[in-house]
Design brief:
Layout: E1 7-9, E2 12-15, E3 18-21, H1 37-49, H2 53-58, E4 60-67, E5 78-80, H3 82-89, H4 92-95, E6 96-108, E7 114-125, E8 131-143, E9 146-154, H5 160-167
């Protein structure tokens, strides 16, 4: 079992002018034979950059718990189930044009089903065209090759003006 200081890193590659982290093959010794939590996170990141929200949602268990512990007023602090997640992410690409994840470091934990990811995402806010840059810490738990819990520790104070512009954009639902 890896110690909690073990980290998995990745480099970015360019695919159709979008930087996509490379993905390693699943570990052959996984008890469930599917993607490890670290590999699942890498794959989820590729789907985000490809703007494939349906694909990202499909990586989740039916009863996935998504938490936003630092969510500002007016934003959900948790979503329960794939349907709630689909509703939340349904118009994401109309607001945020995610273009790159220049920093991604995945830390393995004592729980083989849980990883901690440090990442930075860049892109632009669709409504205003202003740059989008945000650092995240994510705690992901997966079982049987599906995300069962996703805790997203993003800093809402880093982008309040641009996110408000995105929410009030003519393309907002």
């Amino acid at each position: 079992m890896p110690d909690s200081a073990t980290a998995v890193t990745t480099a970015s590659v360019s695919v159709d002018s979008v930087s996509v982290p490379s993905v390693r093959r699943p570990a052959p010794d996984r008890p469930y034979g599917l993607l490890s939590p670290a590999d699942l996170f890498h794959h989820a990141t590729r789907l985000l950059l490809a703007k494939d929200m349906d694909g990202w949602i499909a990586l989740c268990a039916d009863d996935v718990l998504v938490e936003f512990p630092f969510a500002p007023p007016g934003y959900p602090t948790q979503l329960v189930g794939r349907a709630a997640l689909a509703d939340y992410l349904g118009d994401y690409t109309e607001h945020i044009d995610l273009r790159d994840i220049p920093h991604l470091k995945i830390h393995l934990t004592d729980d083989p089903n849980t990883v901690i990811a440090e990442m930075q995402a860049t892109g632009r806010v669709v409504a205003t065209g202003v740059p989008y840059e945000l650092a995240y810490i994510v705690v992901l738990t997966a079982e049987h090759g599906r995300i069962t819990r996703y805790r997203d520790y993003w800093n809402p104070l880093a982008v309040p003006a641009s996110m408000n512009a995105a929410k009030s954009s003519p393309t907002a639902r």
